[in-house]
Amino acid sequence: LVIFDTLFFPNKGAELSLEMEFYAVRILLQIESSSTSKSMQVKAFDLLKAASKDKGVDVLCSTHFSNLIKIVSGPEIDSNNLAKTWTRTHPKCTLLKSCIKYLGPQCAQHGEMLHRIFKSVLYPDINSELRIYMFALFDDLVEMGYFGAFLNTISGDVAESILLPNLSWRVGRVASSIRKIALKCCQSMMRDDNVTKSIMTHRCATLLIATFLSCLEDDESITRNTCCSIFTHICGVQSVLLSEDNAKELALALTKRLDDSSNKIRISACKALVKLITRYSIYKEVMSIEYIVENLLIHLDDQSVNVRNSVYVCLSGIRDVSPGYVQSLAKKRVNH
């Protein structure tokens, strides 16, 4: 790196040509992403800052991102070959992660290219460790808001081509981990109401809801809880309208989760139920409100005070749309 500094920056005030700047960025990112030495990483980053001058490292990486991606993916970007040849420690994979890290909000400008890469490497049934790694990277991008408004334009395809195939149930601990992180990505995306609307109006929406319902039965408590949170958000978006059948299935599935072994999931189920019933009061006859209220009243005696409070809030919300059911069943329970 010292020799590199001397060769590329002999005159600290001089401007690098665009070609030399690209080579500098490529080499420094590769060193920074693959080195196990902290001092090497710091030195590589300092040289990146020197190369960027006043522009900032994010702008510098954005300027050369298209050429860097050609090196990373080559002609295989629109196939699943990346998933076949990469590992999480593959130099091209670590280079991509460094590019994304320094791009920051500039990622939105290269959203289409990133979408194509993630679609390629997250092809199911190939290299499970890589998929977990890349899903975590994708989730970071979404959580940080680096895709910006562009996420809305690709959300339907992401749900259909990336998330759904990886959410399908497969036996084994590794498959369970992939479902868990794919579901987490879905949750992160659907925190945006516009993205939720795009996904729920996409052709894959019916299958996606069915998959979410199946995940409510998953052995992993984190998966079940994430599904409850996703349904809470879906039911809270005014521009999304579930079908009568979907509302009925969801109401029964969430009521079942009131008996979950996890306090956290019982609380999440209450939040989702009250959102569902208050938002879709037009379906209250088919959603078996009486059955739901009976189950909620039982849990007013739950050992957890937090669960009891959540049940009370849920019953209060249901009472606003169906006062007769709640009051009459509450009286019966008191008399009993």
Structural overview:
With 336 residues, the chain is an all-alpha fold. It is 71% helix and 0% strand. The protein is built from 19 helices and no strands. The protein has helices spanning 2-8, 18-34, 38-52, 57-63, 65-73, 81-85, 91-103, 111-121, 128-143, 150-167, 173-189, 193-200, 205-215, 221-236, 244-256, 263-279, 289-298, 305-321, 323-335. It starts with a helix and ends with a helix.
Shape: elongated
Q: Low-confidence spans: pLDDT under 50, at least 5 residues? A: none
Oligomeric state of this protein: single chain
Q: Any idea what the radius of gyration is?
A: 25 Å
Q: State the end-to-end CA separation.
A: 80 Å
Please bin the fraction of helical residues.
over 70%
How is the biggest beta sheet arranged?
Answer: none
- Quantity of strands, as a count: 0
Calculate the mean pLDDT score and round it: 85
Order of helices and strands: HHHHHHHHHHHHHHHHHHH
The number of helical elements comes to 19
Strand content: under 5%
Helix/strand-derived class? mainly alpha
What brief labels describe this structure?
336 residues; mainly alpha; 19 helices; 71% helix; elongated
TL;DR?
This protein is mainly α. The protein is built from 19 helices and no strands. α11 packs parallel to α14.
Topology:
Blueprint: H1 2-8, H2 18-34, H3 38-52, H4 57-63, H5 65-73, H6 81-85, H7 91-103, H8 111-121, H9 128-143, H10 150-167, H11 173-189, H12 193-200, H13 205-215, H14 221-236, H15 244-256, H16 263-279, H17 289-298, H18 305-321, H19 323-335
Helix pairs in contact: 2-3, 2-7, 5-7, 8-10, 9-11, 10-11, 10-12, 10-13, 11-14, 14-16, 15-16, 16-18, 17-19, 18-19
